[in-house]
Amino acid sequence: MSAALGKSDCLVIGGGLAGAMVGLRLAASGREVALLERERAPHHKVCGEFLSPEAVEYLRQAGVDPVALGAQAIRFLRLASKQRVVETDLPFTALSLSRCVLDEALLERAAMLGCTVERGAYVDSLESCDGQWKVQLRGGESRSGTTVFLANGKHDLRGLERQAGKHGDLVGFKLHWRLASAQTEALRAFMDLFLFPGGYGGLSLVEDDSDPSCEKSAAGLNCSRQFWMKTRTSPSGYAAQNRFGNGRWLCLPFHTDISRDALLAYGVLEIRQR
User: pLDDT-based confidence at 201, cuts 50/70/90?
Assistant: First the structure.
């Protein structure tokens, strides 16, 4: 990219998995490409950490090895609904790796191949002008390119807003927990899934989170847990205990009036109202 004019052949808006892979592939093919990422540093995302064998192969073809990044192997599935629990072997070996680590590795690989990665580049608007795409950044600067790739995920751009989806009443959240040795071994190589009315939860080990580039810096394996459920407008506050029963209660202030009964009935969490 021309630093003086802020111009490049290709512009990629968004530095998540899709944007980083596009920037990486374009740079590897010899194209002049600039990637604009709104976040200034690596960060966690509300997203599952499961990597299928196909995804692992695509990453390795791009020069990123999840195992070298500390990904945990997943060979078994444990499915829970109400008081029933079933276990089975997976027909393949999958991996589990946090988005904080994976996204950063892809961006670093893209930059290594010649992609210009701009951090803290918050795109306010995008418009076509005289055969070029012009990007207006928050703060007054602008960038332009012949071709633009939108990888902005859930974030809409001014003038290019998308229609609301059909599932506007869904919410997701994720937590990382440090587990004791016995808890870690109970979960090792498993993907735990919990089914309940209106949603599901997932539990798996991720990489050692001692890397200071991530927000948490404690050594040891962490556990990632994610829940999706329908929400309503009644404010509620709950304290939830993880399924391993280590006695530590976590406050969950969120707006829903079905979560307590649903999670209790389906054995996902032990919950007490605050």
Answer: confident
Domain match, 124 and 29 both: yes
pLDDT digits 0-9 by tens, 254-266: 333 334 444 444 3
Count CB atoms within 10 A of the CB of residue 200.
16
Q: In terms of residue numbers, what domain contains 116?
A: 7-48+100-150
Within a domain: 160: no
**Pair (136, 209) in one structural domain:** no
Report whether 246 contacts 198 (CB < 8 A): no
Instruction: For the chain, list the strands marked E by DSSP.
Output: 7-13, 33-37, 50-51, 72-81, 84-96, 116-119, 123-129, 132-137, 142-150, 170-178, 189-196, 199-208, 221-230, 235-241, 249-255, 270-273
SS3 180: coil
The total number of structural domains that make up the chain: 2
